[in-house]
Structure formats: C-alpha cells, structure tokens
Design a protein that fits this description.
Largest sheet: 8 strands, mixed
Order of helices and strands: HEHHEHHEEHHHEEEEEEHEEEEHH
Helix content: 25-40%
Strand content: 15-25%
CATH class: Mainly Beta
Oligomer: single chain
CATH superfamily: B-lactam Antibiotic, Isopenicillin N Synthase, Chain
Number of strands: 14
Structural class: alpha+beta
CATH architecture: Sandwich
C-alpha cells in the first residue's frame, strides 16, 4: 500500500468540508464589502487546510484549454528535441524523467526520482532585458521549440492570465493577516518570481513502495495555482494526518500555499504536504503556476504574526537565497551551478 493512496470523495458538498470552495467573483467584481468577507474565508482556509478551490477566478476556459493542448503537443515531441531545451541554471526549460527528487522535503524521505517530465517557462524576457544581460540568477530567458510559435503564444497567454489572477488575489491574503490590502503589492512588482510548470505523468510502470509521480512535499512558493485534467493522482495531507484525493471541480483552480507564505506568516498559515501517484493506467497532465515575490526581496515574519509570546521563528532572508537552495536540493542539474549563481547574485 502506498503512503497516500486514498479513495477520492466525489460529492462537492463533502469536498467543501475538507477543502473550502471559495467564490472570488464578488471581490473581482468590486462589490462593496466583498474583500472583507472574502478575507475571512481565505483566513479560515489558510489556517486550517492550506488549500482552497477558487471559483469565478476570471481566467477564460479557452485559455486553459489551449494551455493543456500546448502541453500535450510539447510532451509529444521526440525526446531528442525536448532535450535540446534541457532545464538550465534558472530552472527554465525541459526536465526529463528521473531528473528530480524531493530532497528538500521534510514530509517524506524520497529515495527515488520523480516519475514525471516537465516543461518550465517564466516571464518571456528578451535578449536585451537588463537582468538577462547582467546574468542575474532566476532572471533568465525562456527556451522554446523551433517552428512552434502557436505553442509559445498559448503557453504565454496562460502564464499572463495566471500571473494577473494571482496578483489580484494578494489583497485578500493581506487582509486575512490583519494588513492593509496593498501590503504585498511591492514585493510582487518588477517581474515577481513566477514559474509555470507543464507536467506530464506517464502511466507509472513501477508501483513499488516509495515510487511516486511526485513524492510528498510542500511547495516553495508564496502560492500555487493548479489546473488538472480529470485523471486522478493528486493527494493532499490534511491536518488530521489522512491523505485526501481532491477531485477536479469544474470552473475552479486548486490553490495552495507554499513555504514562503508559511515563513512570512510565522507558521500561522499552512504549507500543506501533497504528492502524486499516477496509477490510472493512462497519461496524466497538470499545470502548476508558482507565484512568489521578486527574488531581491527580503522575507521576514510579518508584524501582525509576531508578539512577545510568539516571537519570529525565521531570520530575515533574501528570497533569492531560499529559491536557489531549494533548487539545489531538488534538481540534479542544479548542483553544479550553485557556486556560480551565488557569485552572480552578489556581483
């Protein structure tokens, strides 16, 4: 029996008792009082679950559908073509099977590589971008297959839509933590650290113990927005310790908090463990969008989350350093780039 193999709950009302389903429509429409009401729901989800379903999120279904179609076109390319775009020191490009392991995870001791392949994109910077010219870590250029402009357009349309959506979601998080609505905005200015990961999980051939599509872990983001097809595989560890397989709910994104939000909130908000096993017998696709602050920002516990009785659990740290350490632990290709990236960061 695998660590988190559980039967999915299908009934929406039953699901909502485990992972809240939150309607962002009134807030996005600017209804009076909607932000305050939404913040209460967001606070409850963040303190007790670390996951939520976002309904009426404002991203057109056509944009989502085209992103999944683009992902399938990319992953259908010959392996030799994909390897020309192999993941670089900025974690942009193609990550083949057996090239990552959840070594940074404190949830579960991963001993085998993840059984997925991924294609990462970020802001579509030009060669003349100042950060590209300077060679700053985490500020590189996307890598694209040759002669596939529609794929690039569809993936970047999705990236831009998710980036805008997550920025619009920042004020409810701030108000939920007793801060002014605009508190987080400056941290996400000037091209916040954002990554879009197009994941493909082939049917797992190895179902032995400790073999996963993605081993149990917590994300290193501020927040993650996940889109999935109807092929199951994801499991979330609830605060009860039980693993729950959240179903796809039409018209929603599954949102979870990452380690940066937990660090910022001094452990008040949860960064909840999750992972994937693809025992469906068919291919599984998902798209994870990771939204985090600009790498140059310093992350320190928020003033509303510390007190004399509850001192800060974390030292102020530059976000870039946290990201590079996370990448070094999880991605095999990063281990040779660590020292060079550190030199450029302080140069």
């Amino acid at each position: 029996m695998h660590l988190f193999r559980q039967h999915a709950v299908k009934d929406v009302d039953a699901v909502s008792k485990l992972i809240p389903i939150i309607d962002y429509g009134p807030y996005f429409a600017g209804e009076p009082g909607a932000l305050a009401r939404l913040a209460v729901e967001v606070r409850d989800a963040c303190e007790n679950v670390g996951f939520l379903y976002a309904r009426n999120h404002g991203v057109p279904q056509d944009v989502i559908d085209r992103a999944f179609a683009a992902s399938k076109r990319f992953h259908a390319l010959p392996l030799a073509d994909k390897l020309k775009l192999r993941l670089n020191e900025n974690n942009i490009g193609y990550l083949p099977m057996n090239a990552s392991v959840q070594s940074a995870s404190t949830v579960h001791k991963a001993t085998k590589p993840n059984q997925n392949e991924s294609f990462f994109v970020s802001h579509d910077r030009g060669a003349d971008h100042p950060d590209v010219i300077a060679g700053l870590p985490l500020r590189g250029r996307n890598q694209w297959p040759e002669d596939m402009p529609e794929l690039r357009a569809d993936m970047m349309a999705y990236f831009d839509a998710l980036h805008a959506m997550c920025n619009r979601m920042l004020p409810p998080f701030a108000v939920a933590l007793g801060l002014p609505p605009e508190h987080f905005d400056p941290f996400f200015a000037n091209e916040a650290h954002a990554n879009l990961r197009f994941l493909h999980y082939p049917p797992q051939q190895d179902m032995s113990e400790n073999t996963f599509g993605t081993a149990p872990h917590t994300d290193n983001s501020f927040m993650t927005a996940l889109a999935r097809t109807d092929v199951p595989g994801l499991a979330v560890r609830l605060t009860s310790g039980e693993w729950f397989a959240p179903p796809v709910i039409e018209g929603t994104f599954l949102i979870n908090l990452g380690n940066i939000m937990r660090r910022w909130s001094n452990d008040r908000f949860l960064s909840t463990p999750h992972g994937v096993i693809n025992d469906s017998g068919t291919d599984r696709y998902s798209i994870a969008y990771f939204h985090s602050p600009n790498p140059a920002n310093t992350i320190e516990c928020l003033p509303t989350c510390v007190s004399a009785d509850n001192p800060a659990r974390y030292e102020p740290t530059v976000y870039r350093d946290l990201v590079l350490e996370f990448y070094r632990k999880n991605y095999f290709h990063q281990r040779g780039h660590e020292s060079e990236a550190a030199k450029r960061a302080v140069g």
